[in-house]
Amino acid sequence: MITDILTAFFVLSGSLLAMTAAIGIVRFPDTLSRMHAATKPQTFGMILVLIGVLIRLDGHYDSGMLVLSGLFTLITAPVIAQRVGRLVYREQRIDEHLLDESQLRPRAGDDEH
Q1: How far apart are the first and last CA of the chain?
Q2: Is 66 within 8 Å of 50 (Cβ atoms)?
Q3: DSSP string of 24-47, one letter each residue
Q4: What is the model's pLDDT at position 9?
Q5: How many CB atoms lie within 10 A of CB 84?
Q6: Model-level pTM?
Q7: What is the DSSP letter of 106?
């Protein structure tokens, strides 16, 4: 009984976060905002769903695959977001007025590579 409630809580919470991520991808105006919506709540939502499924499986041999799926998501999502952010910046497809400070722009006196 309590495991069913915990499972439902985690799966529904994760699904709600994934839904807000999808809405953010559709509604946000620029690529950097969409990238943020695609990585942070989506990853956390997936982890919550996986936790709910792990509780439901209760020691089944497939639990290891769920743990690996969660770990790979946690490892790859930040790397992909960083690479997409760099690409968008290099292609100059961002709104400069949205940035407080550009840490990627070369400073005066620095050699450009």
Answers
A1: 61
A2: yes
A3: HHHH-SSHHHHHHHHHHHHHHHHH
A4: 96
A5: 16
A6: 0.73
A7: P
pLDDT, tens only, 73-96:
889 888 888 888 788 777 776 666
SS3 helix, strand, coil % of the chain, rounded to 5? 75, 0, 25
Report the pLDDT value the prediction gives residue 37, as an integer from 0 to 100.
81
In the predicted model, what is the mean pLDDT of residues 90-105?
A: 62
State how far the Cα of 101 lies from the Cα of 112, in Å rounded to an integer: 19
Cβ atoms of 53 and 66 closer than 8 Å: yes
Question: How many angstroms from the chain centroid is the CA of residue 94?
Answer: 20
Which residues lie closer than 8 Å to 20 by C-beta, 6 or more apart? Answer: 37, 41
Which amino acid belongs to residue 47? I
